[in-house]
Design brief:
This protein has 473 residues and is an alpha/beta fold. The chain has helices spanning 2-10, 24-33, 53-73, 97-106, 120-128, 150-160, 167-178, 203-206, 222-237, 263-269, 306-320, 344-352, 357-367, 372-380, 392-397; strands at 17-20, 41-44, 137-140, 147-149, 194-200, 259-260, 286-298, 339-342, 369-371, 414-416, 425-428, 437-442, 450-453. The relative contact order is 0.12.
């Protein structure tokens, strides 16, 4: 809506954007990020889903109409420039490390944990190790409107405690966030899903990422932890995801550490790495990101055959999935892609039986199911996110969901939690001697699965090519 308002204002057409109470700062920040400070707003008091129709009308007439009229009749003073911010080389703080820590926390530049002060000398050394041009612009951060540069990546990396050798990983993650398919502008939505980075390739062993015991625990692997912390700081300081700007999470989650796959276990059972599902060959360094909602452990799985362990794994996928089904239909269409993380010992059960990853996906699709009535309530009544509260049979008849969802009118029939088997993603990591799994639900287009290769070669950014003068920097 705000993007449409900016387009209209740029064309000389006055607008007023309606926002719910509590979202005023986010709306203002979005306008600023799009180059328009002071976009006219009108606030809807209370939460629309917790009011009757009559209450909403009464509230609108009492407190919102006047704001709409004022916004449409008062000229917008706009000079095309966003609010000034410090430049990259400005010294914004001086003092002891304790004073720097308190200042950064007070200004919202850190997460409140201890930081390494990003002095110019530290940042320059961090970038220089890989030969990158610190001022190379990778793209424009949505929705803050800030440039994403190698320098800005490095500033937050120093703060997080990253090592220079990790910079290529950070650059690849930053490129994912800039991809419109990922949808970084949704990272602060109210349900509070958080980004998960899945790592593949030789980079895991060569940079010391942990893929074994404690694979998803803070501190179990230093690179896994600091890279994840960098991601949060980068989202905060470059993309604007703070409570004052774009982070409107109702509760939020603790940051998710980088999940590195156990590629030795994959090779043993003949499975390709996770990133292969996104076009990367085995042996390629790659990062794959998505924003995940809820997660639950599937503990102490018992069984020596696929048939014995599948029901428990499928039950875990069904249990973790709730309103996320609106990404099967509603907020998204066929975009729900939950993740099942198998410990290596469980993956070997499938491997010994000759099952491919595709075989497992198809079996889980057949077994991870819930009653149709529950699916319909989750997408249309309890969460009110499917217009018209249409039944699955109606949606299937109109071709909006696959036919398997509308095979009968029986409300107790079991239907899938995803639109096709390939939507269930599987990774392998964790303690190789424990029969546990972990399942996570996915936030659909609000952080869709997106992947990038990692380029760890020494950068030629600053090399002048005498055969191509235009390539000189």
């Amino acid at each position: 809506m705000l993007r449409a308002s900016v387009a209209c204002e740029a064309a000389g057409v006055p607008t007023v954007s309606l926002v719910c109470e509590g979202f005023e700062r986010q709306a203002s920040a979005t306008g600023r990020g799009l180059g328009f400070d002071g976009l006219p707003l009108a606030v809807l008091r209370g939460h629309v889903d917790a009011q009757s129709h009559e209450e909403m009308v009464q509230s609108f007439l009492a407190s919102t109409v006047d704001q709409v009229i004022a916004g449409l009749t008062t000229p917008l003073e706009h000079d095309g420039a966003a609010t000034a911010e410090p430049t990259a080389l400005d010294v914004v703080a001086r003092g002891t490390i304790d004073e720097i820590h308190r200042l950064f926390a007070a200004r919202g530049w850190s997460d409140g944990l201890a930081i390494i002060p990003p002095t110019r000398e530290r940042v320059e050394a961090f970038v220089a190790a890989g030969g990158h041009d610190p001022w190379r612009v990778l793209g424009l951060a949505r929705p803050s409107g800030r440039d994403v540069t190698i320098w800005s990546i490095a500033v937050n990396a120093v703060m997080a405690g990253c090592e220079p050798a990790q910079l290529p990983v950070l650059i690849a993650i930053a490129e994912v966030l800039l991809d419109p398919h990922y949808g970084v502008e949704h990272s602060g939505n109210t349900t509070g899903a958080d980004a998960l980075v899945v790592l593949n390739g030789p980079v895991i062993a060569e940079l010391g990422f942990n893929h074994g015991p404690g694979a998803m625990r803070d501190g179990a692997g230093a690179p896994n932890t600091v890279v994840a912390r960098w991601l949060r700081l980068h989202l905060r300081n470059i993309h604007g995801f703070t409570a004052d700007e774009h982070d409107k999470a109702t509760f939020g989650n603790a940051s998710r550490v980088v999940l590195a796959e156990d590629e030795a276990a994959l090779a043993e059972i003949g499975w390709e790495p996770f990133a292969a599902a996104f076009g990367h060959r085995a042996g390629t360094d790659a990062v794959t990101l998505a924003r995940m909602n809820s997660g639950i452990i599937v503990g102490s799985v018992v069984g020596a055959t696929p048939e014995q362990i599948l029901p428990y794994l499928a039950d875990g996928l069904a249990r973790v999935t709730g309103w996320d089904l609106t990404h099967v239909y509603g907020l998204g269409q066929g975009q729900h892609r939950p993740l099942l993380v198998l410990s290596p010992v469980l993956a070997r059960v499938f491997g010994r039986a000759g099952w491919t990853r595709t075989d497992v996906q198809e079996a889980l699709f057949a077994q991870a199911r819930i009653p149709a009535w529950r699916f319909e309530k989750l997408i249309g009544e309890w969460s009110n996110l499917t217009a018209g509260r249409r039944t699955l049979v109606e949606l299937a008849t109109d071709g909006l969901v696959p036919p398997v969802f509308g095979q009968s009118d029986d409300p107790d029939r079991l239907v899938p939690i995803v639109s096709s088997p390939d939507k269930i993603l599987i990774a392998v990591a964790g303690d190789p001697n424990r029969t546990n799994a972990y399942v996570l639900s996915h936030d659909g287009p609000h952080g869709d699965w997106t992947s990038r290769p990692i380029d760890r070669s020494y950068s030629t950014d600053l090399v002048c090519n005498i055969d191509d003068p235009d390539a000189c920097r």
